[in-house]
């Protein structure tokens, strides 16, 4: 497992779901964690529960100035930034291409694609200066396959997957480890929104088909260690039985 004692980890979208589970998992592995999301009270509660090794930084990933300020806050609190988890994401708008609201479509790109760029752009110089770090981005099967009503989600996740490859290409020589994690379907608020939409086969899945958020959280911690180095520049699928076996997930 990754050696995370004393390391500093910044997690976007940490107010609930996969991001909140990741914050708890990284803290349990000995890391100091900075929790980012727009919902200040929620991240403050989780940071308070974790204790003195956690800070809450209200942040809209769609704004570069917010992400840059969050990196500064992490450096001020912990003196370092070793891992960035680009996890924040939105599924809306769930609408056909021909009817989609252009502003809502644009917002999804701002969060899911530009938010990942903003994180990489803010963290890469700091990590390069320090000799390296890990930039993990939560991807999706939707990055590689279109689904009805999800054009904004699929297009933004496809762009984010390319950002992981770009980050590896440009950052590897500075010790930056860039990887994506495609978790499969996870029992979070996002799946509740998908179920409520009734659009495309994912909404028809049973709740018991989804994995718990603790599984991708465990995978993200593992991805910081040398065992995951073979995936640099690529995506790890949590549907892969070999990966599940390595992580001890049934
Ligand atoms: N659940 C699944 O089945 C599934 C499958 C594949 C991939 N994923 C990906 O996993 C990631 C986490 O999703 P989840 O399932 O945990 O969903 P979730 O429960 O809906 O959580 C989404 C998180 O993103 C944050 N967020 C949204 N917009 C933001 C913004 N502009 N700035 C900062 N934070 C923002 C939310 O916090 P605030 O609202 O407080 O800002 C929340 O913490 C996403 O990237 C998603 O695409 C999920």
Structural summary, described in words:
GO terms for molecular function: oxidoreductase activity. It comes from Rhodosalinus sediminis. Belongs to the short-chain dehydrogenases/reductases (SDR) family. Pfam families: adh_short. This is SDR family NAD(P)-dependent oxidoreductase. The structure is a single chain. With 250 residues, the protein is an alpha/beta fold. A seven-stranded parallel β-sheet has the order 3-2-1-4-5-6-7, with helices on both faces. The chain has eight helices and seven strands, in the order βαβαβαβαβαβααβα. The chain has one domain: NAD(P)-binding Rossmann-like Domain (Rossmann fold, 3-Layer(aba) Sandwich). α1 runs parallel beside α2 (40-50) and α4 (102-130) runs parallel beside α5 (151-171). The two termini are 18 Å apart. Residues 12-19, 37-39, 42, 59-62, 87-90, 111, 138, 140, 183, 185-186, 188-191 line the site of NADP nicotinamide-adenine-dinucleotide phosphate.
Give a quick set of tags describing it.
Rossmann fold, 45% helix, 250 residues, 14% strand, binds NADP nicotinamide-adenine-dinucleotide phosphate, seven-stranded parallel sheet, alpha/beta
Kindly report the name of the CATH homologous superfamily: NAD(P)-binding Rossmann-like Domain
- DSSP summary: helix tally: 8
Distance between the termini: 18 Å
* Secondary-structure arrangement, i.e. CATH architecture: 3-Layer(aba) Sandwich
**Describe the biggest sheet?**
7 strands, parallel
Q: What is the CA-atom radius of gyration, in angstroms?
A: 17 Å
- The tally of structural domains comes to 1
Q: Approximately what portion of the residues adopt beta-strand conformation?
A: 5-15%
The total of beta strands comes to 7
Name of the top-level CATH class: Alpha Beta
Helical/strand content category: alpha/beta
Contiguous low-pLDDT stretches (5 residues minimum) are none
How are the strands ordered across the major sheet? Answer: 3-2-1-4-5-6-7
| Broad shape | globular
GO molecular function, one term: oxidoreductase activity
Protein name: SDR family NAD(P)-dependent oxidoreductase
Organism: Rhodosalinus sediminis
Family: Belongs to the short-chain dehydrogenases/reductases (SDR) family.
